[in-house]
Amino acid sequence: MAGYIGGKAVNLSTSGADISGTANLDIVDIDGAVDMATTALVTGVLTTTAAPVFNGGFTANDGSTITTADNTTQLTLISTDADANKGPALDLYRNSGSPAAGDDTGRINFQGENDADEAVTYTQIFTEIVAVGDGVESGRYKVGAMLAGDFASRMDMTASETVFNDDSKDLDFRVESDADTHAFFVEGSTGNIGMSSSNPDSHTPQTHFANKRSFVNYFSGGTQFVAGRSDTTVTAGEYIGGYLFKTNDNSTNKFGGMIATADDTAGNGNLEFFAVGNAYESSTTSEGSMQLDDSGDLYIRAGGIKVGRSHGSVYTSTEEAITIFHAGDGSNDTITQVVARDGTGSDQVFRHMRRNVVKSKIEENGDFQSATNSYGATSDGRLKENIAPASSQWNDIKALQFKNYSMIDAELDAPNMLGVIAQDLQAAGMNGLVKQNFKTNADDEPVLDADGNQEEYLSVKYSVLYMKAVKALQEAMAKIETLEARVTALEEV
Question: In whole angstroms, what is the distance from residue 288 CA to residue 444 CA?
């Protein structure tokens, strides 16, 4: 090694040199390795032609700058550890003697210049302490970016929530799926929410839900989920919002849903439920399967009402009823109900009540009960024509064959039932008292026999039979009165 010590050139052999004082070296050319046990101070610029290796770490007290004139990687962290632990780690550690909530724990600024040659932080990652208590430590993570010359928060993760667009800028939020670019979409300018729609302000209920808001205490408490339109006025018959159940094809395969339509411009509307096949979007007038209008009337356009229990558990002794009609002020109520079971445990299918008293009911086995045992039918002569005295029913009543029997259906069975057999009436020529019926299941579908024909059964018009019996009784009474008169005359003789 060649150098100058005390103004004189010094040659240091490879065997080494021991300099106990200060060595002022103007030029040092080292071909081999230099082993320094303490500190090397460079007051100028340290330039290397190869990457330096710091086995014991590297400390910069006043900051360091790594500059490159190319777009190559400026800093690389490499870990050669072969175990399952995490790889290269970068710690940003604020070693404060008095940590407190609100302390900045680190930030990464992504800077560049604008066209005025000014350094601008275009994007920033920011972190801070929220709580420092042992066991309750909480932190905050925030990402921001420049927007139209103003720095704005894009995502803010606190201890209690994650907020997107916390600075309320005109920014859209979009979630993309595999087949849909707008699977979930929030329009920044309006706040409208679209599902499978890039234009949630288009008022097309089958493709989006517009203006969804969550209101607390909007209807005297509770959280509401409101779907509606962004405009302030609507025309009668227009769609307001709703739900649609469909496949991905917007033109077909719509299975059903619920929509709200305007009835007028004053805030009155209809709520409609529709199933497949209803022309709910063919015109401004919807044609749902069921409609609830602004007056409280419920319309079912076709079919009927089927109400039942979907679970398999058997009902208990508690009352299970469906009120079909209810009128009154509580003290004078009239109620018509379809019931599965009343509070006493008695099985019923229908009952009529007034002032909480059962006036009539049809029990499980088909028996009808009335509180008054009074039965009536419309019999106003002004409603009838071709009125003539009835013919004799004497022979028909004499031909009746009354039988004792039991039912094959155990639920309808009763010991020593008394009645007539429909086929016996047919054989006696009283076909008018017999009615042919066809069997159906609980869904009103035909019950077929082994040959594919719908099964049938016969019923008897007992109400007509009773009237025939009354007419025959009148005839018997007339004959008895004639005989009594003849007996009386004979006794007098």
Answer: 23
